[in-house]
Amino acid sequence: MHYLVTGGAGFVGSHVVLALRDAGHSVVVFDNLSTGHRAAVPPDVPLVVGNLSDQALLNTVMENAKFDGVLHFAALSLVGDSMRVPFTYLRQNYLNSLQLIELCIHHAIRRFVFSSTAALFGTPEQQPIMEHATVNPGSPYGESKFLIERVLHWAETIYGMHSACLRYFNAAGSDPMGRAGEDHRPETHLIPLAIDTALGRRPALSIFGADYATADGTCVRDYIHVTDLAHAHLMALEQIETRSVTYNVGNTTGFSNLDVIRAVERVTGRNVNWSWAGRRQGDPATLIAGSERLRRETGWIPRIAALDDIVETAFRWRLTHPEGYAAPLPAMSPATGMDMPAIPLGADFPLPGAAEEFYRPASP
Length: 364
Ligand code: UFG
Prior knowledge:
Elements: E1 2-6, H1 11-22, E2 26-31, E3 47-49, H2 55-64, E4 69-72, H3 79-84, H4 86-106, E5 111-117, H5 140-159, E6 162-168, E7 170-172, H6 190-198, E8 205-208, E9 220-221, E10 223-225, H7 226-239, E11 245-249, E12 255-256, H8 257-268, E13 274-277, E14 286-287, H9 292-298, H10 307-320, H11 355-359
Parallel strand pairs: 1-2, 1-4, 2-3, 4-5, 5-6, 6-11, 7-10, 8-13, 9-14
Antiparallel strand pairs: 9-12
Catalytic activity: UDP-alpha-D-glucose = UDP-alpha-D-galactose
GO molecular function: UDP-glucose 4-epimerase activity
Protein name: UDP-glucose 4-epimerase
């Protein structure tokens, strides 16, 4: 199959590009590189640099290639940020997606996979959160994603487009074969920040909020390995041959922010210098996925489910890419301020447990 991947230079998108190619599909990436990285796109994958708001460009891209489907990742995606600039989130995420979906219908592209979010549930009363739980977004970011889910509902009802809305919980980790990783600028996510703090690349980490209604007072999140998440997209593509689906994608286990710090300390063998800070606006206390529907209907199971294994893949990528995509695979030296052993260029990372056989592509 031939797929267009918007946001394919970003964290989740780039891992999905790898999964699609590992499965034998061909891909074109469309990305404005505002948060993504050229180096995150494999050199032999065509990259169109442009804004989703540029309908003429998108139209040309769709005219020039007959796509079997679109996977749509390009979006603003930070919960806390969306409380600061709400209308930017609502406008950009919603309008860009609306136009993209309309263009897909115009070009008779009938398969659409949408990166939705657990943030559309707000602060649900029941955990784990099932797909049928009440939608009540706690942030403009979550709201923007839900609006797009509604557009897809009408795209199916009226035009017969099949879509998969994948409501991600907290994507983390990096490609187990070391081909891609997480590089946000600025970085705001807990796991990469804690790793960089452990490595001494950041002086300290603030933990936002000590008074949530959770066991240790910090927020609880369900961390899903980005490669498991990517694989859920392949499964969803099979499903939408015949119908539209909505799935929660998570591990069904919650870890508090303090659990994450302890995991990072175990994996790195170093202390994380952290301190308390006030709550971050928009953060729900607990988000734990009920992913039974995805497992039952597609056979998907997370292969890298243990938090330490997830952190381990993120840590290894950071060791080989201390500057992220800016300077991939530099030599490790005392000049970097790190005394970690160097992992050789192109190192073949051992995969955790059962993931070994599953995620290694047949031909490298
Ligand atoms: N946190 C800190 N200190 C930091 C950074 C984060 O305490 O410096 C806390 C947050 O307050 C939150 C937890 O760590 O309690 C996780 O925060 P992240 O920023 O890592 O991730 P979020 O849960 O805010 O959001 C992520 C994605 C969203 C997605 C959501 C789904 O960024 O796009 O997961 O749960 F919608």
